[in-house]
Automatic annotation (TrEMBL):
InterPro entries: Anth_synth/Amidotransfase, CarbamoylP_synth_ssu, CarbamoylP_synth_ssu_N, CarbP_synth_ssu_N_sf, Class_I_gatase-like, CPSase_GATase1, GATASE. It comes from Rhodococcus triatomae. Pathway: Amino-acid biosynthesis; L-arginine biosynthesis; carbamoyl phosphate from bicarbonate: step 1/1; Pyrimidine metabolism; UMP biosynthesis via de novo pathway; (S)-dihydroorotate from bicarbonate: step 1/3. One of its GO terms (biological process) is glutamine metabolic process. This is Carbamoyl phosphate synthase small chain.
Amino acid sequence: MSGPHDTPFADSASGGDLAVLVLEDGRVFRGTTFGAVGQTLGEAVFSTGMTGYQETLTDPSYHRQIVVSTAPQIGNTGWNQEDDESVGPTGDPAGARIWVAGYVVRDPSRVTSNWRATGSLQDALSGQGIVGIANIDTRALVRHLRTRGSMRAGVFSGDALAWAGNGILDTDVLLARVREQPSMLGADLAGQVSTTTGYTVEPVGGSPQFTVAAIDLGIKTNTPRMFAERGIRVHVLPSNATLDQILDLKADGVFLSNGPGDPATADGAVHLTKEVLGQGLPLFGICFGNQILGRALGRGTYKMKFGHRGINIPVVEHETGRIAITAQNHGFALEGEAGEEFDTPFGRAIVSHTCANDGTVEGVRLLDDSAFSVQYHPEAAAGPHDAAYLFDRFTTLLSARRGTGVRK
Ligand SMILES: NC(=O)CC[C@H](N)C(=O)O
């Protein structure tokens, strides 16, 4: 099966070396190499962010995903030493890496122009072996993914291309490779991106007011920073952390991070969350952490058709009617309706936030406020329930509940 849908950009891109994007439904886009040359497989998803590609590419939540930027021109601010969202396995910022499986853009910037830049996007991608593709009609690709849904894909260039004897690209061979990879549905990935040893991030300026145990399911650099700015010491623990570890640290509260993969697979984290709630310890979660808290409260999750990925997604806080413009990247969601209240073993809970565009659940909490979470990345949200609001709310909760958690 060959793809009849090569884009108008293919000809104009013929100056560069050939790269092809193959989708699991057989559609093929021809473009040119971008970043590393070779083969990569992953789930094709699109992000509508006009800026912030470095934060996107380094976010561990994108592990095993090939990201398509809807913004046509990408790379003009290059690459810097400050905006990475991942850290090394022991929390070392020098160990930051790109987590996306591949990157798809239409028009890469030929020049880098930013006072913080220390290199180009192309060099960062090729230096880290990230295979990309440029000069394809990303509008057509995104419309296809919106219509058919996110799907498995592959980017191929150089020796990874397959040729029929007559010099024609053999897309059947490439398609077979695309279809051999596992689906994102059922993918258990948090353990692949999590710290294995644990590490501590000390608060800014002086002795800690509170101690938080942060479960690293794919944590971003910004999260411990947000806590540190509020006088909180953060112990970042591996995804398979136990309640005993949390209690031994005498943590005042628990944070559940963002992370890759299907939340339906995260039974270990859900079990731990139930134990934490049973102890009465304050809990705050974002993204994957919201899905984990929701599951611990008895809700199911499902795979969305094409997900929410971007930095301008409007979220309504049900109880106040206030809307924040949020940064998100999720392909799964919790089941529920805006403002729906329900009973749980830990008290009554509510679907606190939903997306103003499509009604997707974007936040849950226990009505007594001892545990709450949002589906978005609060540090990049603008408006009334932004980072300051959520992290300050958690700090207030820690202060109000200090010492109320049952300890050994
Ligand atoms: N940003 C996240 O934490 C993503 C959560 C989950 N992997 C999803 O795709 O829905």
